Model the fold of this input.
Amino acid sequence: MFIGRKTDKNLKEFFVVYGIENYLYVDHSIDIDQVRLLISDIAPTSALSVDMNRYNILDNRISRHFVFNLQKHIDDDGCVKKIAEYCFQEYFTDDFFLWNMTDGEDEELSKKYQKIFLKYKHLMDIEYYNPIFKDVTKVLDEEKTWYECPLCFDAWEDKTINEMTECPKCKKIMAKPQFVKDYKI
Ligand SMILES: [Zn+2]
Done:
């Protein structure tokens, strides 16, 4: 899934969605009209959960790396709280995964979670067309399995269904030209 928004300065910001949380309950103490999306900004290991209402969905396909989880707990006042979540498997092994990764005091745990997050971030960054990465490869054959890097001119074979590919030599992530789209926000 891919989202975007216009900033106050009318610049376009694009984000890959690395997780989705849908709050399925009514509670007056917090603003619950919310689907929250896990995105990353600033540094690659920084992730944050944002209110979906502030963004436009540009590509609504769900990641192949998501699994589904239903969190359910009953409050002291009997209010049943459910959160339907889609994220990578390891995210659900710890109720405070995001907190422990970004703000937790356990440095070792934080590093461990950052490594897991970076692994999935890469997989989801290359999964669907992603204009955060500006470069586009050349296609060298009719079957569209051989690509050439416009920066270092290395060529490689990529038979995956990913819409982005990574140059094995200069490690740049770039789009396969047959998937390039023009996203209007
Ligand atoms: Zn290259």
In short: Residues 107-125 form the longest helix (19 residues).
